Amino acid sequence: MSVYLHEEDLPAGVLADGPVAIDTETMGLITPRDRLCLVQISDGKGDEHLVRFQPGSSYAAPNLRAIVADPNRIKLFHFGRFDIAALQHYLGVLAAPVYCTKIASRLVRTYTDRHGLKEIVRELLGFDISKQQQSSDWGGPVLSDAQRDYAASDVRYLHALKAELDVRLEREGRMALAQACFDFLPHRALLDLAGWPEIDIFAHA
Ligand code: MN
């Protein structure tokens, strides 16, 4: 179980086939303003890969883009809406098909309004992950050990979470509804980028 740091792209052939967990770290929450600094990716076999982008990067990253766009790989996110928009805006590639552990959590953990990654990892898997570095500066020349560990932990548990959440989605008869949400999610991210960020297009008023 290791964390690997790469510059500007993922090396070819480092991921096993199958679903990949993806997370992003940016300079902030406004996607066109706040540049993409780091993309974390894991195949769920125990290693995490961190791909760092320098200021002024071209974001060419052909290997990473191919993984994100691969129609045969499910991309696992936690609150994928944000990450999918960042990947689309900076890498120019739309992630699909996707699975979002936050949406799945909302559909089955109806007994709580706490759907943060830390909370569902603790409840469903029994691990305690630190969120201390969440608001740190991801744009500096050197990532601290704490930042690397934090960034890697954001993708480390998504495969196991999907397995647990799928059991509950089946149990509660909501798998089809979840899949419909996942199918729409890339389009929700595109709506964010196109100028409908905080507008519920399904709302009456
Ligand atoms: Mn993160």
From TrEMBL:
CDD domains listed in its UniProt record: RNaseD_exo
GO BP, one annotated term: nucleobase-containing compound metabolic process
Molecular function via GO: 3'-5' exonuclease activity; nucleic acid binding
Matches recorded under Gene3D superfamilies: Ribonuclease H-like superfamily/Ribonuclease H
Lineage of origin: Bacteria, Pseudomonadati, Pseudomonadota, Alphaproteobacteria, Sphingomonadales
SUPFAM superfamilies, sorted: Ribonuclease H-like (SSF53098)
Record-linked Pfam families: DNA_pol_A_exo1 (PF01612)
The 3'-5' exonuclease domain, residue ranges: 1-170
Protein name, per record: Ribonuclease D
